[in-house]
Design goal:
Layout lengths: L4 H18 L7 H23 L3 H27 L5 H33 L23
Helix pairs in contact: 1-2, 1-4, 2-3, 3-4
Amino acid sequence: LRELRVWQEAVGLAGDVIRALRSNVRRETKAVSDNVMLTALSVGSHIADGFARPSAPDQKESYLAAKRALFRLESELAVARHAELMPSGALSDVAARSAQVARLLTGYLVYLDRQIAEREAPAAPAPAPPGGGATRDSVRVPA
């Protein structure tokens, strides 16, 4: 898991979000800040869960959950920006890292879709009989 780049970036994203919000947490905005931090943490958690799953369809389910959490995080960060809960410089850094996680997740989902398609592909047609044997369609009946 520690070598999985998408997980590394998701963990870094969560760390960046927590660092940026921690400095501006006030009692009246604590609930919002806590929710944004938990969402940021959930992206990496879903990726770790997917990594541990045994089959590609199960992995895909967890990676899709990570992608949904990432979209939720982007919405929550937009609210935090409008509420001035994050410094603008930190927000641009977080947005760049979030975009990187999204690209990596999308790439991994494409990879999983290919694996699933290969496993579900119908079996190849049976090879022709050796020696060019006759088949029903190749036999001519005299008229």
